[in-house]
Design a protein that fits this description.
Helix content is about 45%, strand content about 20%. With about 200 residues, it is of the alpha+beta class. It folds into three domains: about 5-65, OB fold (Dihydrolipoamide Acetyltransferase, E2P) (Beta Barrel); about 65-130, DNA polymerase, domain 1 (Orthogonal Bundle), CATH 1.10.150.20; about 150-195, Orthogonal Bundle (Helicase, Ruva Protein, domain 3), CATH 1.10.8.10. It has a five-stranded antiparallel β-sheet with strand order 3-2-1-4-5. Helix 2 (about 65-75) crosses helix 3 (about 85-90), helix 7 (about 150-160) crosses helix 9 and helix 8 (about 165-175) crosses helix 9. The longest helix has 14 residues, at about 180-195. The chain starts with a strand and ends with a helix.
Length: about 200
């Protein structure tokens, strides 16, 4: 099992990144909550990981905090929830907000995340209500410009999270002018989606 990686970021295309460790490039997928806090390409990073082995693939998921990884692993134990939906949940809301939704049985907030229907949200609440405790730790915020085309990267990230292309375009337009980084675009688009 791979528990963590420490190395140099060689590429970032939300929700995927590559971290080079001792000459080997590890491809990881990470939630947007982790992406918002990653350093720039070429800088060192340490990420906690969760390794998934399937018949057709071996997948590595990266997380900035232990709380993110803990919630991700808890989500995978809920029937009907796979890594893609778990990543979408952690990308659509913070760990703290998700725990509050579960504790308050807020189905309406959970179904706003792409891929989460009412039955799935209710199942999550029932299965996780007693397993997730509120947490006070929130990593410091650091936004770093990524790539030459933030709009294209943000569009790719939103479609990878399950938004339809037309919906992703609409959310990015609603993010407004003056947004300069991929992370800012994604954050504003997800915030607008949560308000709808």
């Amino acid at each position: 099992m791979i528990g963590s990686v420490r190395g140099r970021i060689t590429s970032k295309t939300p929700p995927q990144l590559t971290v080079e460790v001792g000459g080997v490039g590890y491809e990881l997928e990470a939630p947007m909550s982790t992406f918002f806090h990653l350093p720039a390409v070429g800088q060192d990073v340490r990420l906690l990981t969760h390794f998934v082995v399937r018949e057709d693939a071996q997948l590595l998921y990266g997380f900035a905090t232990d709380e993110e990884r803990r919630v991700f692993r808890s989500l995978l134990k809920v029937s009907g929830i796979g890594p893609k939906i778990a990543l979408a949940l952690l990308s659509g809301m913070s760990v703290e907000a998700f725990i509050v939704c579960v504790q308050n049985q807020d189905v309406a907030a959970l179904v706003k995340v792409p891929g989460i229907g009412r039955k799935t949200a209710e199942r999550m609440i029932v299965e996780l209500r007693d397993k997730l405790a509120p947490t006070d730790s929130t990593p410091g915020e650091r936004l770093v410009p990524v790539g030459a085309s933030p709009e294209v990267e943000a569009f790719g990230a939103l479609t990878a999270l399950g938004y339809k292309p037309a919906e992703a375009t609409r959310l990015l337009k609603a993010a407004g002018p003056g947004t300069h980084t991929t992370e800012e675009l994604i954050r504003r688009a997800l915030q607008n989606a949560a308000r709808e």
